[in-house]
Specification:
The protein has 2 domains: 1-76, Winged helix-like DNA-binding domain superfamily/Winged helix DNA-binding domain (Arc Repressor Mutant, subunit A, Orthogonal Bundle), CATH 1.10.10; 78-157, no CATH class. 39% of the residues lie in helices and 19% in strands. The protein has 5 helices and 9 strands, in the order αβαβββαβαββββα. The strands form 3 sheets. Strands 1, 2, 3 and 4 form a 4-stranded antiparallel β-sheet that branches. A 3-stranded mixed β-sheet has the order 5-6-9. The longest helix has 19 residues, at 2-20. The chain is globular. The relative contact order is 0.12.
Length: 157
Amino acid sequence: MLFVTRLMDIRSRIQKSLANRTDTVFLRREFNRFGSRAAVNAALKGLVAQGTLMRIGQGIYVKADIGLLTREPVPVEPLGSAAYQALKKLGIPARMGEAWRVYNLGLTTQIPAGIVFDTGKRRIARKIGFRGKFVQFENPVTPAIKIFADTKQGNRQ
């Protein structure tokens, strides 16, 4: 009985903290001050079940609202934006993927189909996403701009 009461207290304290914050993406470690690891995990799990938060990765949560069409929780932030904020909080330098950069430069009219981040030489094994839609990470060995230029000139390998 004491654990349930304490858990409800931790959950309500986390809810108040979420309401007072302007950012929408949170790491699990940001809630360490509210209690033990197990108690905070249980409180976060309860908030996910309640629809206040969505878990988009291991230790990564985003604020959620109830969708008008599906009546299920949906993130208040698009997946690409939420993933970028999470990577920033994790200290991982990331930028838009090569295909998006080529498209934005006007070198192609093909719109990239997916959310891809270039993390430089850093390999990322973490999954960020929800309901089957996940962010991808690339570590370009050969830049797509060079490949595109070679294929345009007929120098394809």
